[in-house]
Amino acid sequence: MSGPSPDPALRRALLAARDKRERRGASGDGTIVVSQLQPEEALALDGFLSPRRPILPQGTLRIALSQFEAALRSCGIEPRAAYERIGGRPLRNLPAERLARRELRREFRSWLDHHEVVRSNPALAEWFDQAVRQGRVRSEMRPLVEQALRIVGALPAPEPTQRTVLATRMLDGDPHGLDVDTPLHGLTVSLLQAAASLGVGTPPREVWSAWGVLVDPVSSSVAALNLPLIGEANLAACVRAMRGTHVILTYGQLTAEELRWPADVLCFSCENPSVLVAAERALGARCPPLLCTAGRPSDAARLLLSTVHDAGAQIRHHGDFDQAGVQILRDLEDRYAVAPWRFDIESLCKALPALGHDPLEPRPETLEDAVEKLAQPLPEELVIDELVSDLRLTGDDIT
């Protein structure tokens, strides 16, 4: 920047003028206001502007932006250069920026409305309409949206394909481009979910599956004991042959063939593998069906629970007496009509004195309130003997 530098005492006036110029754009005008003028500011402004009335200390300066800039130019000072020097950054034109953003949004929306994949699916067009209005999809996301729409347009796959293979083929050889933690995965799943009219809560793995895409069929698994699967399919036969010892079933195995479950068999569910292991050691083949969610249920665990629920069988669940454990229970209740298994306020209140803990007074109204009042979480391992005893009694009734 060249030219003379303004008097340092003009700093506040220059900052006010810069802010006004940015808000009004290149040709707009407005009033600069600087209050509580210091003596050196009043003196500098009085000499700089030569007003009809003197500018006095502790007073307020009010002057048109155009008039202030004319005074700068009369002193050989280019206003823009002065503003950028005093602000330490390039001068912005906010009205022009807003206009450019509006035009970009208009172009983006027009591009979306005319995109072949969007036009061919009314449900997808409706999803985008809502997402754009709500600000969940914005014009600056266009490269991401283009990738997602390219993937949606290539589905369903002619034959089942793994998600990593799909990503490699569609995303310049990047097998991790559609990993769960990527923005592209989240957007693509939302689009596929909308295009197939699937429920909002549909797990991503199920969404991909509906479009012929397999999601790592090996890593998601569930541990179970004595599952009474019926039929002559390979998995059912293998599980029956393993009766008395636990099995680890992957999502791929559970989806490879139809799972059939008898409607009149009670199934138990626990949160921690230690309960399943204790039941296996104590009861072996006499243990009733038991599966382990291992914390929050995996996709494989959900698939198995869904099979049991769809068959009309009852599921009873126990977990850790803490916030996460109760959240898991509520989720299972909502999705699979699970009933608590020694996992309610009454069971907790009975267990506390037996474990040497103080009772909960006054008695909580909900299980959520109860676990919130606990001095420390109560893991289900502390009541593992009672759980195994329940399984033993149920197993005796079955046999």
Characteristics:
single chain; 399 residues; alpha/beta; Dna Topoisomerase Vi A Subunit, Chain: A, domain 2; 6-stranded mixed beta sheet; two-stranded antiparallel ribbon; 19 helices; 51% helix; 9% strand; elongated
Quick take:
This protein is an alpha/beta fold. It has 19 helices and ten strands.
Write structural notes for this entry.
- The mean pLDDT is 91.
- It is elongated, with a radius of gyration of 34 Å.
- Helix 14 (273-283) links the parallel strand 7 (267-270) and strand 8 (290-292).
- Helix 7 (122-133) packs across helix 10 (183-195), helix 8 crosses helix 10 and helix 14 (273-283) packs across helix 19 (384-398).
- The protein has helices at 11-24, 39-49, 65-74, 79-87, 94-114, 116-119, 122-133, 142-153, 163-170, 183-195, 204-210, 234-241, 251-255, 273-283, 299-310, 323-336, 345-354, 367-373, 384-398, and strands spanning 31-34, 61-64, 161-162, 213-214, 221-225, 246-250, 267-270, 290-292, 315-318, 339-340.
- The chain folds into 3 domains: 8-92, no CATH class; 102-214, no CATH class; 221-398, Dna Topoisomerase Vi A Subunit, Chain: A, domain 2.
- The chain has 19 helices and 10 strands.
- With 399 residues, it is α/β, with parallel strands linked by helices.
